[in-house]
Design a protein that fits this description.
alpha/beta; Rossmann fold; ten-stranded mixed β-sheet; 11 helices
């Protein structure tokens, strides 16, 4: 990799081995993430794509028995270094989950929650509005900010969660199947929002929808499952520019998966 390419890699994940207790969940997966691009993770169920995604901001640390071997370089700092605070990592690398999970509080307080937690000193009203605009939700909720976040539709709740995630100003936004619980109209709204967000943030998305990866991802990483090691261990098969990977995959496994052979 030449120096020009290295300059635009904001995050370099080298997951040599990931365990849950004695289970080897992922092996040999090197995933470089480029700044202000959308990187899509695709592959069959159980291939480790969500495990790798959650390793990028140490969300898996919260799971008993989780062990990570390798490194995740973020601005040349290994986030798994013992001196690094996982909370600080998650402040810079935000997360949006599969199911919308707004807090049982007002729309305003949902967005303000992380700001208060991080002792934000600026104008709270302005920052909440900025985040809701960034989540493409402001025009729909500006007159009902005191209403519960749970009163919103599923698509609106997911955009509220995105607004909450970006309010604290992360550099990277991780999205774990953010559209799987949404209808096609809400899905398209989230996809359009992702394309807007990459102008300000670096985005990584896990998706089972290959068409979605083709629509939004600049880079795509294809993971598969190795069953020859005594279990179902996920690993990275290949990664590249989305158009190139879908039109001219280099690995036979990738070709088979893209053509519908999921065996």
């Amino acid at each position: 990799m030449n120096s020009l390419l290295q300059d635009d890699i904001i995050l370099d994940c080298r997951a040599e081995k990931i365990f849950y207790s004695d289970f080897l969940a992922v092996r040999d997966s090197h995933v470089p993430i480029r700044k202000n691009q959308i990187t899509g993770f695709i592959g069959p169920s159980g291939c480790g794509k969500s495990t790798v995604l959650r390793s990028i901001n140490r969300m898996n640390d919260l799971i008993r028995g989780f062990k990570f071997f390798g490194s995740v370089q973020f601005h040349s700092m290994d986030i798994y270094d013992k001196k690094v605070d996982p909370v600080a990592v998650r402040r810079n690398i935000g997360m949006v989950f599969q199911q919308p999970n707004p807090f049982a509080m007002s729309i305003y307080e949902n967005v303000a929650f992380g700001l208060r937690l991080n002792r934000f000193k600026g104008n709270m009203d302005e920052q909440v509005e900025k985040a809701l605009r960034g989540g493409a939700l402001w025009d729909e909720v500006k007159d009902k900010l005191k209403k519960s976040g749970l009163s919103l539709s599923g698509g609106q709740q997911q955009r509220l969660c995105i607004a909450r995630a970006i309010a604290t100003g992360p550099q990277v936004l991780l999205m774990d199947e953010p559209c799987s619980a949404l209808d096609p109209i809400a899905t398209r709204q989230i996809e359009e929002l992702m394309l807007q967000l990459k102008e300000r943030f670096t985005v990584c998305i896990v998706t089972h929808n290959m068409q979605q990866a083709q629509r939004v991802a600049d880079q795509t990483a294809f993971f598969s499952v190795d069953i020859s090691v005594g279990g179902r261990t996920g690993y990275l098969v290949e990664m590249g520019a989305t158009k190139e990977l879908f039109s001219n995959p280099q690995e036979q496994l990738t070709k088979e998966y893209l053509h519908g052979d999921f065996s």
